[in-house]
Design goal:
Shape: elongated
Strand content: over 45%
Largest sheet: 10 strands, antiparallel, barrel
Order of helices and strands: HHEEEEEEEEEEE
Number of strands: 11
Number of helices: 2
CATH class of the largest domain: Mainly Beta
CATH architecture of the largest domain: Beta Barrel
Distance between the termini: 32 Å
Mean pLDDT: 78
Length: 288
């Protein structure tokens, strides 16, 4: 089932096309070739909307002072579904008269799962007693990335530069475990971790129009520092290839990789996140 954000983004896209088609003047402006471009011919503003298929592996833990970390969620052990389809939204803006620009990206990874174990114990001179355990878990992470970019090298076919900005990761995890002995049920664990981590980062990017109508975009973002109650590092990289079906519209495919290794210090304990994500995506890009 599609998550609510994907349905919402699809509804926005369909509504935009419907409104444009219902007004001839707007429709003509939407589908003509009058794209705002920089002096080197690069589009000044574009939006990419697509679907991403992500696979994850890792763990989330909590650590009390002076004690080793206690794993709250391990993707391999608690029955979490390790793949999720999600929306992909990005926006790119270039200044008309300078080398400055901006980039925004947003996507989500939201999975849940359960695992159970059942057996029987033989009581001496007594009956068999059924025993078992059950674990239910959820993991929800949403990324928001905003970068100020500066083009170091720009020609009619290559635009490469650096950026500085903020990764914001909204993480929400839950775990519930239960042990069954005969007809008795004992809840042994029920808890959750939540954090919203605004983390400064740096970015390197390259846009390359390697053939007529074909272009490649590569981005690599990274941070590794202590900031407020957060410490650790995160790597975000994606490679996108697209084909321009018109001056305004392009269709493309991509691959994305994200590595999150962050500690968040709370008042009584430290939250530890060590998760890797990766997977393909398909998208539609529109140039204004």
């Amino acid at each position: 089932m599609q998550n609510p954000q994907v349905k919402f983004l699809i509804l926005i896209a369909l509504s935009t096309v419907f409104l444009a088609l219902s007004q001839p003047a707007a429709a003509q402006d939407l589908f003509d070739n009058d794209v705002e471009r920089s002096p080197k011919g690069w589009s000044r503003f574009n939006v990419a909307l697509g679907l991403a298929y992500l696979d994850a592996d890792g763990f989330l833990a909590a650590k009390l002072p002076g004690l080793p970390p206690v794993t709250i969620i391990d993707f391999d052990r608690v029955g979490l579904k390790e793949t999720d389809s999600s929306h992909w939204l990005s926006m790119t803006w270039r200044s008309e008269k300078s080398r400055w620009g901006a980039w925004f990206g947003n996507w989500r990874y939201d999975v849940n799962g359960a695992r159970s174990w059942e057996n029987e114990v033989q009581i001496p001179d007594g009956p068999l007693i059924p025993v078992g355990a059950w674990v239910e878990s959820e993991f929800d992470a949403t990324w928001y990335i905003l970068e100020a970019t500066y083009s170091i090298f720009r020609t009619e076919t290559v635009d490469a530069g650096l950026g500085i900005g903020v990764h914001t990761v909204d993480v929400d995890t839950r775990l519930k475990a239960q042990v069954n002995i005969g007809e008795e049920q004992v809840e042994v664990v029920q808890g959750d971790l939540k954090t919203l981590a605004p983390l400064p980062n740096i970015l390197a990017y390259v846009h390359w129009e390697f053939l007529p109508r074909w272009d490649l975009i590569g981005r690599f973002g990274w941070f590794g520092l202590d900031y407020d109650k957060y410490s650790g590092q995160m790597t975000n990289a994606h490679l996108m290839v697209s084909y321009a079906i018109s001056d305004r519209f392009s269709l493309g495919g991509a691959y994305q990789f994200v590595s999150l290794d962050v500690d968040a210090e709370e008042k009584r304990y430290t939250q530890k996140y060590d998760v890797d994500f990766g997977g393909p995506m398909a998208f539609l890009r529109f140039r204004f």
